[in-house]
Amino acid sequence: MKKILSLILAVIMLAAALTGCSGTVIPADTDARPSGTKSADSDEHGSSGEHGGGSHTADGIENVPVGEKFTFGSWEQDGNKSNGAERISWIVLKQDVGKVFVLSEKILEYDYFMKPTESEQFPRGLYKDSDLRKFLIGEFYENAFTDGEKSMILSSKITTKYRDESFNDLTYDTEDKVFALSKDEAARYVCGVGTYLFALPTDAVNEANPYAMNSISGVPGVEKSMSWWLRDMGGETSKTAAFIYASEIQKYTNDQNVYKQAGVRPAMWIVCNEADMNAYAEGKIKPKEDAELNGRIAGLKVGDKIQFGKYDKDLYSMNGFEDLYWTVIDEDDGSFLIISDTNAGKGYSVFAETTAEGSNPEETSWAESYLRSYINSEEFLEMTFTPQEKAKLLLTRIVSTGEDDRNGGNETEDLLFVPDVSELEKYFPSQEDRKAGYDKYWLRSQRSWAPYIAYVSSDGSVYNDAPTKSHAIRLMARIEKQ
């Protein structure tokens, strides 16, 4: 009898080990796991909800390369509810230290941004108040994941763009575990990456919305796709929201009335190693070494060029971020001083924002400038550089010059900065050397006539302009040699 009980107990323990937190064993050849995907079953032990204690490790997720897929969570997809929900396939958009950024491979629902109501005659495309957000953080999150899987989904601060009643471009933040992508995230992580922009719906969504598909031509391996929501407000009117529309070889963001329907592709951050994630956030560890990046840096000398980071050169075009190239202009024992060849960032930027009264600021130095805070913000750094590239950036002591009685402002320590007039004269003595295509780009030097700031014109000349005007950004940085 004891032998029989021991055998039963062994079988139960083996089944538990195989099923993990999902409670379901998924054979490699089942339709619930798309070909080429990896299954990520989570650990149900430890804390649930917010990540404050314990460690939750999803075996294999942190080793899934960017652009590849794995399964996590379940949702009705084949239109046959009698056989239960199917596993969800996710695309890895970014591998960070201890966590991964993912997007559903397929369109899981087809729904309104805002559900039509009789009382709301003039809707505003605010994601924070939308039915799309309510669905993602409510019905979808609550039903798609087990308790163990929920404990691995990170609560993230997400920033969303909108326009106020005066059409000023503004942002707001929400704290969500599941969300829709922004325009910037779509451009950075999805567009230009294989065919992931051209999303297909699940069988259930396709059967319920047979006329929502777009025929595609000119894209190898893609015949049809379906449009899908982003979270930013539309650019034309506050009654619209951004969405991805793909037709023929064109792929771009468009605006659609919030009372219409489009596909829903959830995105989220999954914690795969909480100890590493927290240690990295506290500056205690660095990301794993990138041999390819180290190879690009090794052997550099003054005058050489290096690809380092990515940026959206074509504003709002959905062909993905382009490689950012730099020139080495100086070196010391431990670092290279580099300057970007062309405009970096999203389009152009002001040096300083207007005052609350809508006028130019009376006095703005580099230390207090919007431009400095923007290019050194976590949002800009995370969007532009990989964790390994970001780890190579060194804090640099910045001294800015000024003309006459304007001393240039307080010294700063920055990862990224723009040139000073004195640096421009030292490293680019000729006017021709100072050109950056057709772009006019900011310098950080104050000029004698307050509040004017120096900039370089398209012909390489140095002029002055009000800090609230927009010019290109030509970045400088120091990167670690080893």
Describe this structure in words.
By secondary structure, the protein is an alpha+beta fold. It has two domains: 34-283, no CATH class; 286-480, no CATH class. The chain has eleven helices and 26 strands. It is globular, with a radius of gyration of 25 Å. Residues 1-37 and 41-57 have low confidence and may be disordered.
Compile the SSE list and pairings:
Blueprint lengths: L1 H18 L17 E3 L29 E7 L10 E11 L2 E6 L4 E4 L18 H14 L2 H4 L5 E8 L5 E8 L6 H8 L12 H6 L4 E3 L8 E3 L1 E6 L6 E8 L2 E8 L3 E4 L2 E5 L2 H8 L9 H7 L7 E7 L10 E10 L3 E6 L8 E2 L19 H6 L2 H7 L2 H6 E2 L1 E3 L13 E3 L6 H7 L13 E6 L6 E4 L5 E4 L4 E2 L4 E5 L2
Parallel strand pairs: 1-2
Antiparallel strand pairs: 2-3, 3-4, 4-14, 5-13, 6-7, 8-9, 10-11, 11-12, 15-16, 16-17, 17-26, 18-25, 19-26, 20-21, 22-23, 23-24
Going across the major beta sheet, what is the strand order?
1-2-3-4-14
User: What are the segments in which pLDDT stays under 50 over at least 5 consecutive residues?
Assistant: 1-37, 41-57
Output the radius of gyration: 25 Å
3D shape: globular
Entry keywords:
482 residues, alpha+beta, 2 domains, disordered N terminus
Quick take:
The chain is 19% helix and 29% strand. It is α+β, with helices and mostly antiparallel strands and 482 residues long.
